[in-house]
Design goal:
Keywords: Hydrolase, Membrane, Metal-binding, Metalloprotease, Protease, Transmembrane, Transmembrane helix, Zinc. This protein is an alpha+beta fold. The protein contains 9 helices and 16 strands. α2 (165-194) crosses α5 and α5 crosses α7 (341-359).
């Protein structure tokens, strides 16, 4: 039963992280008036889909992300050309449906050969019907039907490329932005539940270590080292030990309600002074101000750590077999989920922050690359050729999928080899 619960937690966590990221794209695209054709979670074959309003919502087989497909980002699949026979369904003097095949089954529709058609600007179609030419106005939300597949037309003012650079940039940046906001909310929740650190505490004291020989016990709170107050500064505590070399140190600890003094002499381990302890924090309930400030500090700390890791990744300072993919991430998440809800909340916040930062890398197919192209457009005063940009993103996506296969292979090997 516990394994099922943990599995559901993992699925829910990844679903929320990806859904909120894509919802950011979706929401700001809709606000800009862009037609959103599809809101997808996952890649590959569709498992489930339904249509509401103008958008098709789909769940796909490969749970490695998601996407929001906006009109005008890619070339339209269905194009009606002059000389092509079509059937039109009319309502209130406007075309609501354009059928491109199975015309013999459209007995109630108006049929003819296309002479002129404009589904982006003037929204009309001109048909030759039994030798006569007739013009029909097309509804801005008209549907084209081909092989049973319905596609809503996208007038120019509903396409991604027709919007201002700032509107397009916001619709792209909104995905990572939602991840940043979610990360901060999760960090706030974690701090509110865990409290804030008030003192450095010994979580573990290794047997026969200098700390054990000095009489220290797990649970002892470190008040002072060499007459320097420690408070909740773990880095200061560790730094004092490193600087002491093998010289005796004067510690003042609190055990229960009693204050004790002891002398600890670090032992050199591979040239580094060690006392044989694992330190944590003694915590207390946080005020509202402390929750906000501590959450922000946590956000800044993990942002720096993630950026440092991404920098090493970009510079090739990681070996390929050191990288971990979806399988490895799920394995780590499972281990953390076993530790309880608070570590899971913190880990979810870290992953959300990572997802936002990773997507801002200027690598083709990622949000960061799309923002770079928009920046170039803002400087040049005209957009990069959409077909060339599409090729760049396609190549980038293929490279990301190849990398995903490699790191997943690494994950599986690690699982097999233990």
């Amino acid at each position: 039963m516990q394994s099922i619960q943990i599995g559901l937690q993992i699925v829910l966590m990844f679903f929320v992280l990806v859904s909120l990221h894509e919802w950011g794209h979706y929401y700001f695209a809709k606000r800009a008036g862009i037609l959103v054709r599809e809101f997808a979670i996952g890649f590959g074959p569709k498992i489930f889909s339904y249509t509401k309003g103008e958008t098709r919502y789909t769940l796909r087989l490969l749970p490695i992300g998601g996407f929001v497909r906006m009109a005008g980002e890619d070339p339209e699949i269905v194009i009606i050309q002059p000389g092509q026979r079509v059937a039109l369904q009319i309502k209130d003097n406007q075309v609501t449906h354009l059928f491109t095949d199975q015309l013999d089954q459209r007995s109630l529709a108006i049929q003819g050969t296309v002479e002129q058609i404009d589904l982006e600007k003037q929204l009309f179609v001109m048909l030759s019907i039994e030798g006569d030419t007739e013009r029909f106005d097309v509804h801005p939300q008209a549907i084209m039907v081909t092989k049973g597949r319905e596609t809503q037309i996208a007038p120019l003012d509903r396409q991604f490329g027709s919007k201002t650079v700032s509107q397009r940039a916001l619709s792209i940046f909104a995905g990572p932005l939602m991840n940043f906001l979610l990360a901060f909310v999760l960090f706030v929740l974690f701090v509110a539940l865990s409290g804030v650190a008030s003192n450095v505490k010994l979580d573990t004291v290794n047997a026969d270590s200098p700390a054990a020989k000095a009489g220290l016990l797990a649970g002892d709170i470190i008040k002072e080292v060499n007459h320097i107050p420690i408070n909740a500064d773990r880095e200061k505590f560790i730094d004092l030990i490193q600087k002491s070399k093998d010289q005796p140190m004067n510690w003042i600890i609190i055990r229960g309600q009693e204050e004790k003094q002891t002398e600890v002499t670090p032992a050199l381990d591979n040239g580094s002074p060690k006392v044989g302890v694992v330190v944590g924090f003694d915590s207390r309930n946080a005020s509202f101000k402390e929750v906000v400030t501590s959450s922000w500090d946590t956000m800044v700390y993990w942002t720096k750590s993630i950026v440092s890791g991404l920098k090493k990744l970009v510079l090739g300072q990681f070996k390929m077999d050191e990288l971990s993919g979806p399988v490895g991430t799920i394995q780590i998440t499972s281990q953390i989920a076993h530790e309880g809800i608070k570590p899971m909340i913190l880990w979810s916040g870290i992953l959300s922050l990572y997802l936002g930062l990773f997507n801002l890398l200027p690598f083709p197919a990622l949000d960061g690359s799309r923002l770079v192209f928009l920046g170039i457009e803002a400087v040049r005063g005209k957009p990069v050729d959409p077909s060339r940009e599409s090729v760049v993103h396609f190549i980038g996506f293929a490279m990301l999928m190849l990398l995903m296969i490699v790191v997943t292979y690494n994950d599986i090997l690690r699982l097999i080899n233990g």
